[in-house]
Amino acid sequence: MTLVSERPGTGAPRPYTFPRIVRRDIAGGRVIAAHLPGQALSVATLLLDGGAGHEPAGREGLASVVAKALEEGTASRDATAYALALEGLGAELSTSADWDTFMVGTSAPAHLLPRALELVAEAARTPALRPADVERVRDDEVTGLKMDWASPGPRADAALRADLFGAGERYGRPLHGDPASVAAVTVDDVTAFHRSWLTRPGVLVVVGDLDVLDLDALAATAFAGTVPSEIETTGPLDVPIADTRKIILVDRPGSVQSTLRLGHRAPHRAHPDYVPMTLTGTVLGGAFTSRLNHLIREVRGYTYGIRGDFGLARRFGRLLISAGVQTKFTAPALVDTIGETSRTQSGGVTEDELAVARSWRAGQLSVEMQTPGAIAGALATLVVHGLPDDYYPRLRESLLSATVDEVSAAAAAHLHPRGLTMVVEGDAAVIRDDLVATGLGEVVDG
Amino acid sequence: MPSANPPGAPTTGYPWPIETTRLANGLRVVVSEDHAAPVVAVNLWYDVGSRHEPDGQTGFAHLFEHLMFEGSVHVAKTEHMKLIQGSGGSLNATTNPDRTNYFETVPAEHLELALWLEADRMGGLVPALTQETLDNQREVVKNERRQRYENVPYGDAWLRLLPLLYPAGHPYHHSTIGSMEDLNAADLATFQAFHTTYYRPNNAVLTVVGDTTAAEVFALAEKYFGTIERGEIPPAPESALPGGLTEPAREVVRSEVPAPRLYLSHRTAPFGTRDYDVVTVLAGILGSGRGSRLYRRLVDEARLAQPDNIGAYGVDLAYAPAPVIISATAKDGVDADALEAGLTAVLAELAAGDITDDEIDRAKALLTTQWWRQVSTAGGRSDLLGRYATQLGDPARIGGQLPSWLSVTADELRASAAALLSAQSRVTLVYLPATEAAESEENDK
């Protein structure tokens, strides 16, 4: 048997194109749409300025309760009738709230999308929000959070967030709240949040075969009964960095792994260094081939996987490194993680690594954007961060032309290994002494 | 009358071309052209999974999958990932009881690279396999076991259900992740033999979907895979079983879980049969979405179950009757007995024939959307084509899957529910919070 020994070269590159984008003002709202000819499925999503950033103090998770409550019936039908009407079309209501936006939408075969969007709008604009239902949804959400918080991760995430942004600040509290803050949500909170943020027109995102879909009709459905209003925008936050490292130990007795969450603050999404920061993150921990995963999984065998990357929202960003490591290797895994972060900050990246990072990020713009859902997400990014129609082709060019000097400069400027907060959720009785012995930073209980 | 089949509903679930060939060494090649996106998906199904593992070697097929990324004769250790990511691609592999699949989606100009990499590890893995690599990946897999099964509440449910569903000695009795003891005992020679035995062209299906042509793929397949020698593939362990259990089975687990949870399961029919298509629709009626029978009865009406953790689904296993799994988690203040009574009452209703046309249409409509979502990417299509080619002998069977679900009748569903959902054939797995279990034990005394 003879295998071909020589690695084949690259074939003729295909030109990169993002689907044709249409932006229109219709029926008092704005529409952004992308044309995907021949796709059986289509997507319609209402993008509303009702993210978790608007939640009042002590009510973190309110937007998530509102999202769940939308499915409990509308002015014209009860919860079961609503579910049967929507699911009878093969569609389901998809709701989510992140820091910047509240999204409610659905996916359906193109010929059923107009009817499905009518039902989406009915839930978003005219939910019944009966007090007994709202209270039950809230209680279920508390239970759901307790279930989530029984798994490793949420407690560590909360400890990190509080340390980076301040426990008294909205961004210092968990995105979806915690069991106590959701338990504090009242019926009035829910109806007030809905009235303030879900009755404005917002932006309708449509992806699918635009030869079949009628944007005027879809927009009329989505914006019916809404009142246009100006939305105040607030600028990005500063980027304070701690001057010493610390280890926050969150006890999880009997845990066979330690959950690591390391981070520090970073600039917001629309920062001019976005591309070199993304490539820095990719080399450090954003890909399977990254420095962190290579050393800590492939060489040391301490973990099933470790990831690190910049996560960037409209007003703030942060570096976040996450892993689950075997309990007895907690301390050496932390030492290695700090080591690789420091090396990347001080020494920058190599051409060899950057070549992989560039091509991977650029190629992913084709590989990971095949579906209507993925394209809808890309359009939402354009809307939330105020980016132009030709953003993705330009992003691709910027990624491919980034130099070692530019990316190394971003690593030097935006990585802060001496200011990292290191949260470790694990069996404190077993790992505390090892953590202290690393000398990486003061160990405090979280 | 409501209908999930409006005029214009497709008569096939696969409106793309499918072309196939077989190389002289037995490798089946399936190509489905689609020039909508500038990408190609390359997918290999090897007809070997944890069902082939003998006693004392549980977890080996999956650990072996990890070794396939660690280099081969012309590909240095760690180079595989680097080359695929460096071409802009996404890649992964999975192992289940039935088979092992390897797949990548890359920008179309890197098709040849992907085929070269796959051929090199099909034909040239053994010389590159070292003790160091095995030791390292063994630790990675043990960490995977800790992370996914041991360190999360209810994480070991599937590991517990399998031995209740399938008798000792049956190929599905043990889990794919395997036991820590067996993983610790794994030696290099066993893995070399495993590759030599099963990673043969005549035990694999190569599928390519996307921005290419069948002629190009067939020529490249011949160039890169054509010289790899066929092998004698030993017959798979005997796996035939009658449909359901004849005696109920039950396990109660007391552990660090936040609320009581139940898993009920029945053996049904193998994936690929008409009976299993009926079960898929039945599971949708029972457990998909807020309009499902379980959600309406136990969440909306009786308020016994949490809304986020309730459902029913089939696990698509092909070589013995596949399980349908029904699960629900108790709301605050509801005990496991009350939840179990609620669940079994819903199953009894279905078994007694209480199924409406609206429920059937709803389940079919959801399956239709789910199907189109699954085939909306080149990668999704390639994996399904590999499945139908490997397990049912013909990739073109893919086109009939959606029409088959849509043609399931109320009579078939009633007959299926009556035959499969009896208490006599049920597996019941109960999780109780450790503290609550202690309290109820005290009450027993």
Strand and helix map with partners:
The complex is a heterodimer of chains A (446) and B (445).
Chain A: E1 21-26, E2 29-35, E3 41-48, H1 62-69, H2 79-87, E4 94-97, E5 102-109, H3 113-125, H4 131-149, H5 154-165, H6 179-183, H7 187-197, E6 203-208, H8 215-223, E7 246-251, E8 257-266, H9 274-286, H10 291-299, E9 303-312, E10 317-326, H11 330-347, H12 351-367, H13 372-385, H14 391-401, H15 404-414, E11 421-426, H16 428-438, E12 442-445
Parallel strand pairs in A: 2-6, 7-11, 7-12
Antiparallel strand pairs in A: 1-2, 3-5, 3-6, 4-5, 8-10, 8-11, 9-10
Helix pairs in contact in A: 1-4, 1-7, 3-8, 9-12, 9-15, 10-11, 11-15, 11-16, 12-14
Chain B: E1 19-22, E2 28-33, E3 39-46, H1 60-67, H2 79-86, E4 90-95, E5 100-107, H3 111-123, H4 131-150, H5 157-165, H6 180-185, H7 188-198, E6 204-210, H8 214-225, E7 249-255, E8 261-267, H9 274-287, H10 293-301, E9 311-314, E10 323-329, H11 336-351, H12 357-374, H13 378-392, H14 398-406, H15 410-420, E11 427-433, H16 434-444
Helix pairs in contact in B: 1-4, 3-8, 9-12, 9-15, 10-11
